[in-house]
Design goal:
Layout: E1 9-13, H1 18-29, E2 33-38, H2 54-64, E3 67-72, H3 78-92, E4 97-100, H4 120-145, E5 152-156, H5 161-166, H6 172-192, E6 198-203, H7 210-216, H8 239-251, E7 262-264, H9 265-272, H10 284-292
Parallel strand pairs: 1-2, 1-4, 2-3, 4-5, 5-6, 6-7
Helix pairs in contact: 1-2, 1-8, 3-4, 4-6, 8-9
């Protein structure tokens, strides 16, 4: 599938790595100018202490065919976010796509501690990083986005409305963070619709992010070696897959039909016809319900 976003301006908030980087690069591949933000630069690392930087992401955007612009921003800092939006306005005069992908909570929540056992400071920090950052960013960016009709807001989360409503997401603070983002997209959709703009939530499937590959001790080239540890990892997808989902939405003149909905990369691949880098269309959330959660042996036949 080929989409064109020539002349479009996007802000991917939280584009240092993972889904944010994949989204930024695919928007660039479609020709967009993409502002990529995060806290880790070549001069300074965030509390995540990871090697990936926003400068690298911007360079990947440009190499893909767009124009990548790296801006160091802490999205909890109102002045920094307001300054970012003012800069986009001064340099571009418009904002067509806002992607709220800020997260950064991997090191702060526990999969095993219950609410009363969990570090309260760490749990509240997770909510600040995963929820407050999105609110602050939308607060300052939406007036620019609605200046002309057709704007798109994508709230990136983990899980669909249907899945998260029926399933506890293993940790109190993780569950609350990811479900809150779903509701933020719904609420923004109601407020943006009269201005001709659209808001959706979007979840990737099992993402082969830098951190996930590192967890399994594999690389993108050798990711299938991880199936010996976790056979269901066979349904996993690259960050490019969710990136192509965002690019397809941004290029759809009828994108308003999705307003307020909870979407997945796999579901949108069926709708728009894009594929992951290997030519497959992994439908992770259907697989999760019908195979993994159902206790069936790992088998991606019919799911990618």
């Amino acid at each position: 599938m080929t989409v064109s976003l020539e002349g479009k301006v996007a802000l991917v908030a939280g584009a240092t790595r993972g889904a944010g980087r994949g989204i930024a690069v695919e928007l660039g591949a479609a020709g967009a100018t993409v502002y990529v933000t995060g806290r880790t630069t070549r001069e300074r690392r965030s509390e995540m202490n990871r090697p990936e930087t926003i400068e690298e992401t911007a360079e990947l955007v440009t190499a893909a065919g767009g124009r990548g612009i790296a801006v160091a921003v802490d999205h909890l800092d109102r002045d920094q976010v307001q300054g970012l939006v003012k800069r986009i306005d001064a340099e571009q005069g418009a904002l067509d796509v806002l992607v709220n992908d800020i997260w950064g909570g991997e090191l702060l929540f526990s999969w095993s501690d219950r609410l009363w056992e969990h570090s309260l400071d760490d749990g509240l920090r997770v909510l600040r990083l995963a929820v407050d950052t999105h609110i602050v960013t939308s607060h300052y960016a939406l007036p620019l986005l609605i200046r002309k009709p057709g704007g798109l807001v994508v709230e990136v989360t983990d899980g669909t409305v249907e899945y998260n409503a029926a399933n506890y997401r293993v940790s109190f603070f993780y569950d609350l963070a990811k479900t809150s983002v779903l509701r933020m997209a719904f609420a923004q959709a109601k407020e943006l619709a009269p201005h001709g703009a659209t808001a959706v939530s979007l979840t990737p499937g099992w993402l082969r992010s830098e951190i996930m590959l590192e967890h399994f001790g594999v690389t993108e080239a050798t990711w299938r070696d991880a199936l010996a540890q976790q056979p269901h990892f066979a349904i996993s997808e690259t960050p490019a897959f969710v990136g192509r989902a965002v690019a397809a939405l941004a290029a759809d003149p009828a994108v308003s039909r999705w307003n307020g909905q909870s979407l997945s990369s796999g579901g949108l691949a069926q709708e728009y016809g894009f594929t992951d880098v290997d030519g497959s269309r992994p439908d992770a959330w259907r697989y999760l319900v019908e195979v993994q959660d159902a206790g069936r042996p790992a088998d991606v036949t019919g799911y990618r």
